Amino acid sequence: MELFLLSNGKVSGESELLGYAKGPIQSMLLSKKIRSAVLVPYAVIRGNYDARAAELENSLGIQVTSLHHFDDPVKAIEEAECILVSGGNTWLLNQMLHENGLIVPIQRAVREREIPYIGWSAGCNVATPSIRTTNDMPVRNSVVLPALGLFPVQINPHYIDAHLSGHMGETRDERIAEFCAVNPSEYVIALREGSLLHVSGDELEYYSVKAQGYKVFRHNQETHEYFDTQALAEVVPFRCR
């Protein structure tokens, strides 16, 4: 299995989509001789699907076609060399995956045929068991359906632990702690901007372009910041490096 799960698509001051992860992604594409990819664009609300595909073509150097151009989205996934899942609104994305019958086809493509999956922000969220740890608003009145479950642990992308002056609501840490209190057997991996998890076969690697750490949350356990895969080795059933 080949997964790139990115906290976000761009870092501050960078104009190129997936630019901060371009090195390891292109290395994988080259090693697998991948020349094209299918973009799952459903999370994009205030943008253009084709413009997003064009950004990815320029960044990754491969042909990228948005799924809305295919008469049969399921067949497109079944024939894809690589699957790209855009950021945007996680609620809308997950609902559209279910409505278009794409959950099982994507699972089979990634798990059985080892088609690479690259998802950022919302695309990272839906790769986990559920979207319960997304930061997005439920813009549609949809139930919380299961997500793809390619990665076995919940992720909170765009994680930030800054305390904003004048903000009287819960911090991100408090929100995640609430999730853990309701779901005491589950872990949440908090990924800062410019960071990603890379699964390749049975190995898991953490990368941060800003040399920042990630956090692992669980109910009634002290939360620490980690800069290597030490904590991941304890909660994720992949070999870490």
Characterization of the model:
With about 240 residues, the chain is an alpha/beta fold. The chain has one domain (about 1-150, about 195-210, about 225-240): 3-Layer(aba) Sandwich (Rossmann fold). It is about 30% helix and about 20% strand. It contains eight helices and twelve strands. It has helices at about 20-30, 50-60, 75-80, 90-100, 105-110, 120-125, 170-180, 230-235, and strands at about 1-5, 35-40, 65, 85, 115-120, 155-160, 190, 195-200, 205-210, 215, 225, 240. The strands form two sheets. The protein has an eight-stranded mixed beta sheet. It has a four-stranded mixed beta sheet with strand order 6-7-10-11. About 40% of the residues are buried. The mean pLDDT is about 95. Belongs to the peptidase S51 family. GO terms for molecular function: dipeptidase activity; serine-type peptidase activity. This is Alpha-aspartyl dipeptidase. InterPro entries: Class_I_gatase-like (IPR029062), Peptidase_S51 (IPR005320). Keywords: Dipeptidase, Hydrolase, Protease, Serine protease.
